[in-house]
Each structure stands twice: as C-alpha cells, then as structure tokens.
Amino acid sequence: MWSDLTCFKSYDIRGDLNKNFDASICYRIARSFAMFLEAEKVIVGRDARDSSLELMNSICNGLIDEGVQVLDIGLAGTEEMYWATTQYEASGGIEITASHNPINFNGLKLVKAGSDPIAKEEMLQIKKLAETNVFHRTKSLGSREDISNEARKKYVSKILSFVEVAKIKPFKVVVNSGNGAAGPTFDHIASDIRKINPAIKFERMHHDVDSSFPNGIPNPILPETHLRNKKKILASKADFGIAFDGDFDRCFFFDKNGNFVSGEYIVGLLAKIFLFKEPGTIIVHDPRVVWNVQNIVKFNGGKSVVSLTGHAFVKQTMRENKATYGGELSAHHYFKDFSYCDSGMIPWLLVLEMMSRTDKTLSELITEQRSQFPSSGEINFNIQDIGSALKKVVDFYEEDCPQIDNFDGISLSFRTWRFNLRSSNTEPIVRLNVESIGDIDLVNRKVEEIKGLLYS
Q: Active-site positions?
C-alpha cells in the first residue's frame, strides 16, 4: 500500500506500471477525485495502451463506489473527454493515457466541470485524499453507461463546425495515427467529411490501433520519426502530412516536400486564421519562441498575450482574456469555442480551409514566417548542475543584454536575436530555443555558443 503517491505531477498523473502506478492506485484516485468534486456525473475515456482498459475499469469502479454516474466514452482521445465533459454537463472528466511516454507508463488527465483544468493546489488535495485512503460511502452505488457512439457523433459534429467543409478544395493529406487512439476517431471525421466533400482524400499510415506500438511510441516531435512521414508524403504526392501523438491532443505538420514544420509557425498560421475570422481578437502564446507570432498578431490587428508554458496556464490565461485561440511550441492548440481546450483534430482542418481560401500550399503559407524569423527548434541538454549552468549563460550575456525576462525560465532578448532557457520540472534537462530576425546562421552560431557555456 502506497502512502506517498509519487505518480502525482503538478497538473496531471503519470507513473511507471512496475513501480508507482497500478489499478489499485487508480481506484483510490477515482474515489478521491469524486469526493473532492462532490461529483454526480463523470466522463471516463482511455487511450490505446494495453494497460488502459484495466486501469479504466478500476477508475470506473472507484467512481461507482462514490455514487457517481459514470459516462463511458471508451477508446477516445483526451480532447473527446474534454468535449464530452462540457457536452454532458458532467462534474468532471478523466482520460487514462500516458500519451507519448514509454510503454511501461500510464497516467490520468483530469478536468472539472466545463472542462476546466485541475489547479496545482487542487491536485495536491486530491493526492492527499488518495494517500489517506479513507473513504466513507454516504450515498448509494453509482452506475456506468456506455455512451461512446453518441459522444463521438457529438464530438465529430463539433470538430467540423470550425470549418466550411464544402468549400475545401480537393487536397490529399497523409495521416499518421501512430497506432494510437487517433485512428478510429479520424475515420469518423473522414466519413462525415466524405458525405459533404468527397474530393478531399486521405492516405493513412500506422493507422490501426495496436497497443504494442510496432512503429514506436507515437511522439512525432522526435526527429528520428520524421523520415517515414516524408517518404509517405512524397510517395503519395500529398499536399501535406499530419501526425498525432498517442492521445492525439497534439498534431504535427509536414509540408508537401515532407519537411517538418516547427510549432511556432503553425501557431502563427492559426493566429492569422482566427484574426481573419474574428478581427481584433486576442491570441495567447507561450514564451519560448515569440517574435514570429507577435509580429503576425500585430500586423493582422490583434493583441497577443504571453502565458506560462503548460496547458493549465494557457487555458487560464485564455479564459481570463477571453482569447479566441492559444498555441504552444509543443503543438498544443487551444480554442475558445472548444471549452478553451486543446485539440489535435481542429488545426489540420483550419489549415485545409486556409489553403483553399488563399490558393497557397502549406509551404507557401509559412515561407515568409521561416525567412523573417528563423529559429532553432527546441534543443534538450542533459545537465546535472542546472543552476550553475544557467548562471554561466546569464553571466556571459548579461552585460550586453538590453532585456532579461524571468517570466518562464530565462529569456534574453537582443537587437537581432533572442533565446529562452527552461529547466525541466522532472528531469535534469535544460531546453533551449533560439530565434532571430532573418538570420539562420546567427541562430546556429548562438546555439553552439550557448551549448559551450552549458557544458563548460
């Protein structure tokens, strides 16, 4: 019996099935979640991992023992849980998923009513209740109802409401589902698209759900996964490609030449789309790479607001500012009209619609962004003494730096270039992003310079 549940993180729950996470822990978490929210109705969904069904059953049993009406949406993406929580006016929602973590891991994503994130302090209270492991049933047993078919139909309808499907031109898109949860959901979306606009074509790869993940854990941000997408896009002569992570709350883009598109350029593109749809609207973005997005928002008459990195912070900032859209470098994209939640399915539909409206390819839509504000992409460095390493970097640049920002990590801005350094909350890793005004060689030189300082 665990008295200290180390699977609890700041804003979600993740653990090693061989060490600190199992069905009995999930049962306790479910009961504590229900107690904390005084829940009457909870949405529960799961990803494609082999362990997820057992953990889901345990979650449901815990909720039932707390008198909760469980609405089971089955195999589904995290965003399907988000939308069902709002759609069915539930007290909260739980998704069993470890997304892109190693195969021996699993976890939980939790939300309150209205798909509002669980705050850090609230997560600590749920953790304390689960660790105490003292539950007193004060009401009759709850129930479990399978609403997977109905919930998916409602979700697909909502997703397609973001675009005018009939006006999209006959493009071809490569779709890599990574053998995760995305495949079945995508098929339902594609089926409804076909009824309205059969000219849109999809080429699927790694599409079947397979808990053994024969093509690797789906984490499309990793450079070693990009070649297979490129080969498929070129062979299919597709207009662009997309790839999903395990619970498909993130969507990654590849242009028609199979080249990976960095996250900040997709954030800039989606910001431009929403400023066209809703002139003057507010756009939220994270602080890692900012100049490109801020330039686009300003040029298109909007207002940009910087948020701390992480879904809970972005969602909070969006709600406070009533922002239409929020985006992160990590390929999380958030939408006001989707309960301020992130979705991996909405972005590619919006890009298809914009390509149709502008008669431009994805490459053409982002070429100007790339040339005006080249960036390094996020680079990770394994550093044991992070504090000393960061101090060396700041000391080296501080005298000549006109602007130092400690809002989220360390950001130093100069006349023609800028960088952000953030340390991981869970690993001895420092994450670096460098950007410049029109000078990729400067970006590369500064990456090497900072690397030398970190490892000196």
A: 99
